[in-house]
Amino acid sequence: MTDTTEKLGAHEVATWLRRHPEFLRQFPDLAASLVVPRESGPAASLASYQLEVLREKNRELTRRLQELFANAQENERLSVRIHQLTIALMRQTTAMDTLRAMAASLAEDFSGDLVRIVLLKPIDGIEPAEWLDVIGPGDMRFKPFADFLTSGDPLCGRLQPAKQDVLYGDRVDDAQSTALFAAQGLAMVAVGSRDANRFYPGMGTLFLRMMGESLGAALSRYVD
Fold it and tell me: Which range of residues forms the domain containing residue 62?
């Protein structure tokens, strides 16, 4: 009688073992005699190999937990800062003081290299400032932002040159990445960074939306 097991190839054996993971429990002598080659170094027993695999999985889980914990801590810090910013904005008694508080917080608390606020309609009591500009629907500079303002979604990353020029003027080269958000149709706020990787497409924008809503609510007190 021909031994049919000789006709089995390595792939068939591997497939069968995957379907029967308890097989080696029935043959402990076989489990003890198997060796598993390493990518480098001497061969190891199956038991030690499995132990090393479990250790590697444990290290990976530990690393992921540490990342999640670090992200949670950072999100908590951002939440506290935004809460403090909202309170500061609502405590201001003029539109100009409100804008100053916003600009100062973005520069200091959120480490923005370049801060720009663009009002989309005139508001009484506004004074000239390096970080402040006013444009409206009739202004040609408004055109590159029309889709952005219609959608209301914050933008992150390297903006189009037309947007960059309006926001940063002669300092456009200092803004290698930008976070741009709107304030309820009253203003646009840009936070520029010299680091090209600071703001990037696909990053979370929840906190940007919250800041835009806070500024919009504070400014709406001074709009007729």
Answer: 25-91
